[in-house]
Amino acid sequence: MFDILTVIPGKKKNTQSGWTSFNAPCCSHNGHNPDKRMRGGIKSDGDDWQFHCFNCNFKCGFKLGRAISKKTRSFLSLCYMPDADINKWSLHSIQHKDLLDSLLHKKKQIKLPKFKEQEMPEGELIYTANKEHQVYIDYLNKRGLQHNDYPFMVNPKAEGRQALGIVIPYTYENKVVGSTIRFMDDRNPKFINDQQQGYVFGTDLQKEDWEVVLVFEGIFDAISMNGLALTHDTVNDNQVAVINKLGKRVIVVPDQDKTGLGICERALELGYDVSLPNWSEDIKDANDAVIKYGRLNTLLSILDAATNSKVKVEVMRNKIAKRI
User: Fold this and answer.
1) Which of 258, 279, 276, 254 lies closest to 266 in space, CA to CA?
2) pLDDT (tens digit, 9 = 90+) per residue, 160-190?
3) Going by DSSP bridges, is the β-strand pair 175-183/191-194 parallel, antiparallel, or unpaired?
4) CA distance 175 to 166
5) What are the φ and ψ backbone dihedral angles of 137, each rounded to 5 degrees?
6) Checking CA distances to 297, which of 11, 87, 166, 304 falls within 20 to 30 Å?
7) Is residue 302 within 8 Å of 273, Cβ to Cβ?
8) 296, 286 in Cβ contact below 8 A?
9) Among positive and negative, which fits the CA dihedral 258, 260, 265, 268?
10) pLDDT tens, residue by residue, 256-266
């Protein structure tokens, strides 16, 4: 980092209160008489410093980890510091913050959660020869899924909404650790979850030789694309540990709605890629895209749009936000 006191021109004097006094260069620039009584003062705290002119009352400062502000840039220019050096100082400051954040993130140890094994949820596997199951098969087909894409379960003899639900067992390391019911009548709530803290759906769907893992919000998105599902619109620390254990490149594919777009910043902070494909306006999530474009085209569009550039993600996010 630059030493601010080496930038100040002319004589300097240290005071007992910790200030360094000098003739402030800002007075005439701000419509006052030039300072000839050393009314400018710099007080440093490590790399951070603050400036105060006790003549024209101009103030500015610098804090390591932040970009140089417009007022501070003006002050440094009045001290005859070249623009190239100011830009370099500002860049080094921002890079220092990124490095510090990275080190802090690495030092923060996130404990991998343990999931308690549970009994298989009540119901029966969907069977094409069972006529009672046809309504469930038809529903899955409308969602772009086949009944054997996952061990879907149903309970047609149950009472009330339970009979209209598709049961999806939650597994981790091939053990049942919970489940969810997706009701086909689309009344709220659409899902009823039995989910343990930190659980991520779909880890057992991943293959060792796959280099990429896709992370979605919804269960049907994950099943459609053999990915993971968070089951909500953020990712907590326990889920991060589960995802990172896979050791793959992570691409987060948010739902293209107001709540879904909120996960973008979190994903980038974690070092994940974000994908916001340029789907048509009627497409809200990956499952919708599969229904309209097919699995292969949906996958290609996700991979093509994946990026870790904050600028590119922000541009696409703003574009989507304008239409929803």
Assistant:
1) 254
2) 888 999 999 999 999 999 999 999 998 889 9
3) antiparallel
4) 19
5) -65, -40
6) 166
7) no
8) no
9) negative
10) 987 777 899 89
